[in-house]
Amino acid sequence: MDNGYLPIINYQLSIMYKTLINPSALSQLDGATIVIVDCRFSLADVDYGARAYEQAHIAGAIYASLDDDLSGRPLTDHGRHPLPSPEALTALFGRMGIHADTQVIAYDDANGMIASRLWWMLRYMGHTAVAVLNGGWQAWQEAGLPTRSGIETASPAEFNGSPRRDWLVVHADVLDAPLLIDSRAEERYRGEVEPLDPVAGHIPGAVNRFFERNWENGRYLSKSQLKTEFDVLLGDTPINEAVFYCGSGVSSCVNVLAAAEAGLGNGRLYVGSWSEYCRNNE
Fold first, then answer.
1. Which residues are known to be catalytic?
2. Please, what are the domains in the chain?
């Protein structure tokens, strides 16, 4: 259904959102170039997100698929959702209409489990004006804000960026990390269950912080609470030396996002994650 629109005015950003944004703030973003990206996806039904988007989405949003857009040919890693090459990311973001003065907002219906992957990839390519919608699609609906049905497209733009390779960890270097943080559910970390990969368990030496611990009642914890919890988790390890992983380099981006929201800076990401590591170390 179409019950409104978000006005978009093309001039330079005056306020930049870099981590999270609330629905009310997004609804008032009428003074900047914005690109809204719907990232809904289900591992159990890979067409679910596109169907849900076409049925209803935030007015003005375009759609990005985890499999088709946010993953690519295996180059730096060989996990279930390999990181696209810098060239592929440059082309993708250009097709999305993203340029230097664009504020990007990503959302899904899992409070950023997929959207944070797009958030991380844009930052990896040097674009910092990107935020994840706090509460996601559900929060937008609860607020009664504008939605549309159908498919929307963006006007192509020239995206210029280069990768921050120091933010990326590959399989050969993962065991050298001073702190490894496994972002999967506790039972997967402990090796009690493994629904997706051929081997259960975790990378030797890793500690666990399930990515869903970053929110309560559908909203992210306060900056101060996140900082307190991550300070305990990190101990004496600087955030830029901590390496986050999960099953395939997707939900671990939530922990990277939460640490950045807490004001701690940028953690590193092992994109291949357990899906790559367990196959190479059987």
1. 246
2. 20-148 (3.40.250.10), 165-280 (3.40.250.10)
Per-residue pLDDT, 32:
57
Which residues partner with 148 through β-bridges?
57
Q: What is the pTM assigned to this prediction? A: 0.93
Cα–Cα distance for residue pair 223/134, rounded to 1 Å:
13
The two tokens of residue 274 are 């357990």
Question: Which helix (H) or strand (E) segment is 137 a member of?
Answer: helix 136-142
pLDDT band at 154 (very low <50, low <70, confident <90, very high): very high
Instruction: For 91-123, give the secondary structure using H, E and C.
Output: HHHHHCCCCCCEEEEEECCCCCCCHHHHHHHHH
What is the distance between the alpha carbons of residues 55 and 1, in angstroms, rounded to a whole number? Answer: 8
Per-residue pLDDT tens digits for 18-28: 999 999 999 99
State whether residue 240 is helix, strand or coil. helix
What is the sign, positive or negative, of the torsion defined by CA atoms of 123, 42, 252, 167? Answer: negative
pLDDT digits (tens, 9 = 90+) for 158-169: 999 999 999 999
Q: How distant, in Å, are the alpha carbons of 5, 25, 156, 166 from that of 93?
A: 23, 23, 9, 21
Which of 14-18, 59-63, 150-154, 216-220 is predicted with the least confidence, judged by mean pLDDT? 14-18
Query: How far, CA to CA in Å, does 25 sit from each of 19, 28, 63, 165?
Result: 13, 5, 21, 32
